[in-house]
Design goal:
Elements (H helix, E strand, L loop, with lengths): L1 H14 L3 E5 L6 E5 H23 L1 H40 L1
Antiparallel strand pairs: 1-2
Amino acid sequence: MIVAAASLLIPFAVSNRAPVSLGLWPLPFLVYLPLYLLALLLLLAGFVAGAAAAWITGRRVRRELRHRRRRAEALESELKAARSELESHLAKGRQKVSV
């Protein structure tokens, strides 16, 4: 995968080294940078925006998983307590029978 991406990005970077000016409207200055760098920065910004959107969208699923994990832990501790109570009850019953 990295080799395929590099085989596409390296020729793109070599072919597009000409500087372009980037001006954002409310700001009073221009930034000059190579076209390939601008394109790579835009790809990176798109990746970060997509990852943030996916993370925000998965909030409901993460919350549900947290809730289920806590419920499972509570049920396991309840089961452990019930088993120890049953074992102590059975042990008392055995002591009465052996007397």
